[in-house]
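Protocol step 4 of 6: record predicted structures for both targets in the notebook before any analysis. Target 1:
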Amino acid sequence: MVNLFERIEDRPTPKAVYNWRVYACAIVAATAAIMIGYDSAFIGTSMALASFKNEFGLAHKTSKQFAAISANIVSTYQGGCFFGSLLGYPLGQILGRRLGLFISALVFVLGAGVMLAADGARGLGPIYGGRIVAGLGIGAASNLTPLYISEIAPPAIRGQLVGMYELGWQIGGLVGFWINYGVSENIPSSHKQWLIPFAVQLIPGALFAIGIPFFVR
């Protein structure tokens, strides 16, 4: 029977290489994938909440108008990701992987924080702006994180550690899709109801930023 966790290597590797810090760094780096997966998944179901539609005057829009606004909110994030991914590689090359990832995390947290300023009076502007800024951080992080993990991973367990990145992405996506079901069932329709899913973005972003200084070089 095949052992999925067996270390397959064609040359002897010192046992000291397989230390807890390598695994810890890969797990912390995978929180970048959690914020990527979450940010990609939660927005659609958040915009479908009645509390979100009522707050921003979308409840009385035609389906075509609402679809256009939803597409704009999603595409601003994708645009930020595009330019962030282009900036990620030179950022990592010039400043180093750790500092590049740290800057990416801070940019993402900044963008997520800007989104929380949105309300009925300010309109959707902070969400548009925050999505662009968060996308810049996500784009750079999605470029640098797999690169960093592959560079610190011993060859025999490189696949396992890089796989944590994909696992984190799926965990973030799962939470992003289900969180709005949770708030819709347990929190009355209000400003707080739709704001909670937006605020949860800060959790993986903050954990990622806090953990980066402890990364191996």
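Target 2:
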Amino acid sequence: MTALLNERKRYATNGQGFLLIINYTYDREGCEYDKKKLINFFGRLNYRIAFFQNLQKRQLLDGLRALPDILDRGEYYCFVCVIMGHGNKKGIMTADTNELKIIGIKKILDIFDNRRLKTFAGKYMHLNELQYKLDDAGKKENSNANASTCTKDATNTSESNEMEILPPSGSDMVTFYSTVKGFVSKRYPDGGTVFIQNVLRTFEQHHCLLDVETMMKMASRRIQRTHRQVPLFCTTLSRKFHFIYCPRW
């Protein structure tokens, strides 16, 4: 019984993980160390790894919008997106040369919301190496129920009249930003970014035993203590999530 209860507190980890690295190298000397560390860790876990590098805004959006179909068709247990580049309070700076090159993080997150990835709900994680201003969620009601099959008779439990209940939009997601609003994210030309290097070091040391949320807090404490940089961690997870190795792929 104890084992069963413990399993119910964890997300299912059947299948392979999918990692997307969005990398902008302009004026970011040392970013190759971060890319290498990401590939080494997630590669050892047998994740499928994809790269978007130095794309313009339209190219990036087109590539991102094509991913949900791929993810829905695949037997993946989680999706990890790592964004590395310069940014400001409005979002990421893409490779465009005009003022339209900024793309907001929320716009990217919305592409992978479980309203679009319904079979993928509960399996998403996002790491962001940028400084970012969190948007206000607004007054929109968060309802993800399919009302097309609803009836007025609440006592009718026939299969044809049941309401399809899906997780609320924005649920089962983790975001981890390199620093809080208004502060810089440190990067060393001969060693990579403080954020990525410390997060991955923590994952390497503890992923066999600890869940992601616990490891994120450990990494955040280490970064604050040793580098005086304060990462921002946000989660809507309802259970523990663990990185696992998938030998079948």
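Step 5 preliminary note on target 2. The first strand starts at residue 16 and ends at 23. The chain has one domain: 14-137+165-235.
Proceed to step 6 after PI sign-off.
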